[in-house]
Amino acid sequence: KKSDISGVMAKADIKPKSICHAKKWSDEVENLYRFQQAGYRDEVEYKQVKQVDTVECWPETGFVKKLQRRDNTFYYYNKQRECEDREVHKVKVYIY
Q1: Domain residues for 30?
Q2: How many CB atoms lie within 10 A of CB 60?
Q3: Which GO terms describe its cellular component (predicted)?
Q4: pLDDT digits over 13-48, tens only?
């Protein structure tokens, strides 16, 4: 499952219109959780800051595999779900 965000959108300085918190776990919430752990809002901000067109994902699940933090250290993630139910409500979902 690939992201809907095109490379063009990632180059522009896009700001979210609104924000809400996740209510239940989904693939999208899992990836947002991973971006937010690494210090980014979401894939859009990651691509803007790191100037990359693609994010490395697990082919089996589509979850983010590896992210580079702002201090250039890397976060590596498992193929399986990492965002536990008790963490889901902390995940911020940005609406553009």
Answers
A1: 24-95
A2: 8
A3: nucleus
A4: 778 899 999 999 999 999 999 999 999 999 999 999
